[in-house]
Amino acid sequence: MNVRDVLRVLRKRWWWVLGAVTAALCLAALITVKTTPRYQTSVTFFVTTPNSGVGEAYEGGLFSQARVKSYAALLTSDRLSAAVSRKSNTGLTPAEVRDRVRAEPNPDTVLLDATVTDESQQRARLLATHVAAEFKALVELLETQPGRPQSSVKVEVVAGPTVNDTPVAPQPVRNFLVAGLLGLLLGASAATMRELLDTTVKTNDALAEAAGAPVLAAVPVESALRDTPHRLVTAMAHTPRAEALRQLRTNLQFVDVDRPVRTVVVTSAIAGEGKSSTACNLATLFAEAGKRVLLVDADLRRPRVAEYLGIEGAAGLTTLLAGQARLDDVAQEYGTGMWVLPSGFQPPNPSELLGSAHMADLLEDFRERYDLVIVDCPPLLPVTDGAVVAARADGALLVTRARQTTQAQVHAAAGALRSVDARLLGCVFNMVMRSDGDPYQYYGYGYGAPGQAGARSLVDDLSAPEEPRGVPVSAGR
After folding, report:
1. pTM
2. Which CATH number is associated with domain 200-463?
3. Cα 475 to chain center, whole Å?
4. What is the spatial distance between Cα 299 and Cα 319, in angstroms, rounded to a whole number?
5. pLDDT digits (tens, 9 = 90+) for 463-473
6. d(C-alpha 187, C-alpha 469), whole Å
7. Exposure of 118 by Cβ count < 10 A (0-12 exposed, 13-18 middle, 19+ buried)?
8. Keywords of this protein's UniProt record, alphabetized (predicted)?
9. Which fold has domain 39-163?
């Protein structure tokens, strides 16, 4: 994943980043409010040794610098803390005093800084005053031990104690800045990781690679379908979705000019990918183009065609397979040039019926009587019905819903078709978000574009189909 891919992911999952930053800022605000203000008091000591000449001054300076490092540890020693605790009358234990004192020598100098931090300004000043007094007394005591020269080291307070009026903690600006940066980093990392772990099909190239077949059309999702989910392409003739389905019709006609397609199975890897609505819309579009089309609902487990088109589905394909009726008795005319064969009653053995010799004879009969036969079949992974019918058809279309079906599922579905020597004509990438496809799929200069609102295709003008009966068709199955 390169920088461009990361930016695309962040643009698509911007709410992840926003949520992480918001949560981090809220946490920083909570910590800032809950933190007790603390104040600092500083004292600076100057450590020197008596000298009488230049050489002695140089050696004394080196000696003092070495002493400063030791005195830094002395400022936080138990002995000094106990003395300050006893004489300051602050009610603090030696351990509490030691925790409030920090010593830091200035590099390459003979200066030593002591900092006292406390929740009270007055107590911080009082502690710093007693630390300075007790430190000087302790150094004098240690340096005048038997065997040492008198006054070999001298410690003076050159600055302080100075109390800052502004508390050193909490620091709202720093807290919010750090929280914002951490939230941005965590949000971006989470969004990128989610994208890397997401194995669903998101692009045309990924779908073509997983299926081993070309993508004949990428059908975008329409915002209008959220309010009116059941619509045929004839009811939304000048939308990107309708144009994508017309592109599918055109590509299907020219997928192989040497082997014309007369019977097409429309299936998917799993349920809910929009195969039934794709089959209904594709049949409608071919009928618009002047073809005699038969739409067959071969999903004998969860039939949807009759429900989508608003027709009676009690008698249909299973009635023919049972020998209880003829095709003319159960096929229902739907508009001009289109007939629909519902599934009929639901049998206990769908796979056996669809794989029977009688079903093969029916498909041959359909081929002779109609220009194109479109068969809506069940998903390939849950059951074998779709593969059984696809093996006897001229080809199959694999409908895949963007960001729902995984690449492994697409690969397995394509493998199920090839295992029965079925011909996979191509894939239909359904319910594609506008950020998923390529720019040419968005029809920026097609129907509905500025200046093109009233444009109609030549096929629209010549075919002029009558309005179909029944309720419109859903975008998804």
Report:
1. 0.65
2. 3.40.50.300
3. 23
4. 14
5. 333 333 343 33
6. 50
7. buried
8. ATP-binding, Cell membrane, Kinase, Membrane, Nucleotide-binding, Transferase, Transmembrane, Transmembrane helix, Tyrosine-protein kinase
9. Alpha-Beta Plaits (3.30.70)
